[in-house]
Design brief:
mainly alpha; two-stranded antiparallel sheet
Length: 373
């Protein structure tokens, strides 16, 4: 009952609360001047309020605080998430120096870590579990800060961060419920519902943005449910599951940081090198780009669920042919999708370069002149 019906109910309640609170958060954002103005790096073309994350926070907190038991780790996770959301709200309204924001994220991450929510061991497929000892504390803080910033980094297109976070939360809710971990299942389901409700106003054309308030809050809670719901278990999917579910934000952030380091730029410097910016630059619209990213995330999430639920090993330790073929099929499908999207971004990106555009315009003009003559 706790790990099945209650998470579903939490998702429904969170979606309804998000739909009710988002217009209020939008009005509040306009009143305090937290409005995102169009600029050279940004895709949107009109001023848009950016405190929608307050509605997401409220939508997650209402059902989860009611249904979750008084577990110290879960309560500390919520406390840290509220603090990091407040930090994001201050940044949305006044603007914060990146170093100050990073220090605040570390301090917020220390709240659940101090309550015992840590990655104390890592379970690797075939190899088994490895205890981290005292390293569990810095590793867990790094995990929280990394996921917070990864979700923040992909929040650059209408509906992208909310959809990706919602899909990730849905996967974590299913995985946590299957492992009989009620608290993270409830919290993850509430996140998924809140994101779906927020998308009513945030999908293209967006009427409100979540801002750092929402992206940092979502990243923090997702990082926590990944640890408490999956990583701390002894299941095969303990480490692989979160890495697959969060693969797109992880890959996007990794590529962007490597590019900035290569170009000798600060890693926190905003630019247009994210996956969604690059899709947009080759002519994909916002909806097409976001739906493609959703599909990629969903496929990797399905792969994580297949690894969890499809028995590909027999009790004697051998391989189960039907299960192994099923897992292999989804691995091949995920790799094919990745190769296709990388092909689109890296091989076909020449179509959007200024030089090619000039050549193409000249050729068109020349052809038009020939026809007139």
């Amino acid at each position: 009952m706790t790990t099945t019906l209650i998470p579903v109910l939490c998702a429904i309640v969170a979606a309804a609360v998000a739909i009710g609170l988002t217009p209020l958060a939008s009005m509040f954002a306009r009143r305090v001047g937290a409005v995102d103005q169009p600029s050279g790096r940004r895709i949107h073309t009109k001023p848009t309020p950016r405190l929608g994350g307050l509605a997401i926070m409220g939508a997650v907190l209402v059902p989860s605080l009611y249904y979750m038991p008084a577990d110290p780790e879960a309560r500390a996770l919520i406390a840290g998430a509220v603090l990091v959301g407040a930090l994001g709200a201050v940044d949305d309204i006044f603007g914060l120096d990146p170093i100050v924001k990073l220090a605040g994220q570390v301090a917020c991450a220390a709240v659940p870590v101090a309550a015992g929510l840590t990655i104390d061991h890592i379970t690797l497929p075939v190899l088994g579990a490895f205890n981290l000892g005292d390293m569990q504390y810095p590793v867990t803080i790094l995990w929280f800060v990394a996921i917070v910033n990864m979700i923040n980094f992909i929040d650059g297109m209408d509906g992208l961060a909310a959809g990706v976070a919602g899909l990730a939360a849905l996967n974590f809710a299913i995985l946590a419920a299957s492992l009989n971990r009620a608290d993270p299942a409830i919290l993850a389901a509430a996140i998924a519902g809140a994101c779906m409700g927020f998308l009513v106003f945030n999908f293209h054309p967006a009427r409100v943005f979540m801002g750092d308030t929402g992206s940092m809050f979502l990243g923090f809670v997702i990082a926590g449910v990944a640890v408490n719901g999956v990583v701390k278990s002894a299941a095969t999917v303990a480490l692989l599951g979160p890495l697959l579910v969060l693969a797109i934000p992880i890959l996007d952030t990794s590529f962007v940081i490597m590019r900035r380091i290569k170009n000798r730029q600060p890693v926190y410097l905003a630019d247009r090198s994210h996956f969604h910016h690059r899709f947009f630059s080759i002519g994909w619209g916002q909806r097409k780009t976001v739906l493609a990213m959703y599909g990629w995330c969903a496929l990797l999430g399905i792969l994580a669920l297949v690894i969890r639920f499809v028995p590909y090993r027999t009790r004697s330790g051998g391989w189960s042919l039907p299960g192994a073929l099923t897992v292999g099929f989804f691995i091949a499908l995920s790799l094919a999708a990745a190769v296709y999207l990388i092909y689109i971004l890296e091989i076909l990106k020449w179509r959007s370069t200024p030089v090619v555009k000039i050549v193409r315009d000249r050729a068109t003009s020349r052809a038009s002149g020939d026809r007139v003559a």
